[in-house]
Amino acid sequence: MIPIDNSTQREGVSDELNELSRLVVDAAYCVHSTLGPGLLESVYEACLCHELEKRNILFQRQVSLPVVYDGITYEEGYSQDIWLGEIVIV
User: Which parts of 1-90 are beta strand (E)?
Assistant: First the structure.
């Protein structure tokens, strides 16, 4: 196990991003500890979105991220499950 030193902030990571990350992890832990393992991903995603709403965290669900290949944009490139404030992908 690698020890983690929380006494210093990582260079370039803002307090706002640290707080957002803490809230997201707390919401995910709440869902996991309540539901346990074994359900479909879509159930966990829906419940996590509910927990994010309860915490007043703005997010978008199933955001498409296009891929550009040979100068052509393909909209079906990638689907992000949950996108928070344009800075965190869950």
Answer: 59-69, 72-84, 88-89
Domain residue extents for the chain: 15-89
Q: How many CB atoms lie within 10 A of CB 21?
A: 14
Q: Quote the DSSP letter at residue 9.
A: P
Q: What angle separates helix 15-35 from helix 41-54, to the nearest 10 degrees?
A: 130
CA 90 from centre of chain: 2
List, for residues 45-86, the tens digit of each pLDDT value.
Answer: 999 999 999 999 999 999 888 999 999 999 887 888 999 877
